[in-house]
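The material for today's practical consists of a large collection of protein records. An example says more than a description, so a record of this kind follows:
***
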Amino acid sequence: MSPDPERIPGGRSSADTSGNDPWMSRTVRPPFQPVARPRALVVGIVGGIGSGKSLVAAALGRCGARVISADELGHEALRQPEIRQKVVNHWGTHLLDDRGEIDRRRLGAIVFADPAELRGLETLVHPWIANRIEAEVEASRSDPSVRLLVLDAAIMLEAGWEYVCDKILFVDTPREERLRRLHAQRGWTAREVEAREAAQLPLTEKRARADHVITNSASSEELERQIDSLLTAWGLHPPVPPVPPPSRAEQGV
């Protein structure tokens, strides 16, 4: 039994001779389109050893950025039971400290003296670090509250991790200043620094591959001014009130 158009709201009856079919004149709306949120901008920080990459990353963190430290991930990688055991099996138990953890300075003295040994270590830890970086980037890009993600990784370009980044930032600091900082903070000699530098790309190449350059050889205020300029250039504004930068005395530099 067909429905009676007289009983259907808005239905057209046989008496309707206007030619206006209310069913045909109904407005057709396009499919619902969700509002797109801008994904987090991922910025990778590179530079010479002791240039202050972590200092710049921390300053961006005070402006609301989420920071990934590849150095911390490297520490964590060496604490993984499987990786730790492979390191001990290859290089010996003398690498372990009093707590049974791998002494990174002892390990560094071995691998930075022999490129083959360094490649062996990288084969063990780099895949684990890369997986963690990818997971952190994916989580941050899925979080609408994260507008800026910073990857602080000394060997980003050498390891090929720059593919997750939208921008590369090079931190430029004179060599004499870097050597002074490294001796004061880590007790490294110039020879130790040179051994580590030999395992990295030349600074000229790192700088050439960067999208932006920031100088870290003056005051904390000048560094903050440069960071503010970068945030403006990137179309970002600190989502939280910036924390006052530490003094040079507090930085130990």
Summary: The chain has eleven helices and five strands.
